[in-house]
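Notes continue from the previous slide.

Worked example: a multi-chain complex. Inputs as given:
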Amino acid sequence: MTPRPATEGAVQPPALTIDALGRKCPIPIIMLAEQINQVPLNGIVAVLADDPAAFTDVPAWCRLKSHHHVASYELPEGGWAIHVRRNY
Amino acid sequence: MLLEQAREEIAEVLGARADEVSFTSSGTQAVHLGVLGALAARRRAGRRLVVSAVEHSSVLHAAALHERDGGTVETVGTGRTGRVDAEAFGAAVRAEGTALACLQSANHEVGTVQPVAEAAAACAEAGVPLLVDAAQTAGRLPLPAGWSLLAASAHKWGGPAGVGVLVVRKGTRWRSPLPEDDRERRRVPGFENVPAIVAAAAALRAMAAEAGREGARLSALVDRIRAEVPRLVPDVEVIGDPVARVPHIVTFSCLYVEGEALLTELDRAGFAVSSGSSCTASTLRPSHVLEAMGVLTHGNVRVSLPRGASAADVDRFLALLPEAVRRIREQAGVRS
């Protein structure tokens, strides 16, 4: 899977990083839902996850919850940093 | 000649000629032989195989073997409903060197009906044979014309397990990928399981005879589940095409729920459902169908209504589901 590049200019640094490496879905999604309100509006949360389900499920969660999936970057040690922007 | 009578009956329901029908030991074997045999016969035309991203694993595994054997595979994606993009499929078929294209009649996990007529038209124009995996619709829904090979599975239409059907249309080139054997028009090695094939033919005729009425009845029950589940359970996505779908399958995903836990809860209540969630698969990977659709893969539940399923069964399922989901979420520490 290739990383999806951010579309709008430079990469906005995450205001919060959630380490869900080694955790199985739906735990990474539960952690994201619990913590997204800790970043300011339009802030970025990076979810680090290596369960293959997270690669599909974090963007799907964003769609269902009307947040914005910015991009998913492959991590050198396996898994992804999945960037989500808080919309509301 | 029980075997030849069963062959004629099955051919008639599938819209084929008896001499085009071969019996295999399963739907999976029918797909394997259909794909690899059509590719073998078209080797001079090219080594390119076109499949959709949401085909049954039997098609994708045959494709993987073709790739390991030096062939190429072009995978066509789907939209959010799981319906294959007909235009993209047509473009893929028209590309130089395409030997075979494969498209399911409907998806096995989400029930979405695929654009077989459009795919068949594109294939005819390009002179490429189309293999249709009709496992989900044989006996239930009419199949558009224009396919060259068809695979189906008897237990999906209420027949016994262990009988598959491979149909190779007259004029379609096919060469066995296996050592030569005389059985089934040299298409399938080994003896036919005649009693099971006779039972399969009877089951297909019965299914086809009542398909109109029973299909409409099951479809109304599926409509009810599709409408009620999001009303009764918060944070649920019902997936698959709401209209262009098979009558009996409905699939939904519940946010923050582990699929395995939900299956266990429902099983305890007497409902045998399936799931495309990774935690329920031996591979620990989520379903390739849900991935291709870009929908939630966890908390996934697939309900296949059996023949004769009643409104009371559906009511009981709908009464029990909200509490089961609530309990699992609570145990996982999800605040609602």
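Summary box: Chain A is about 25% helix and 25% strand. The CA atoms of residues 74 and 80 of chain A lie 4 Å apart.
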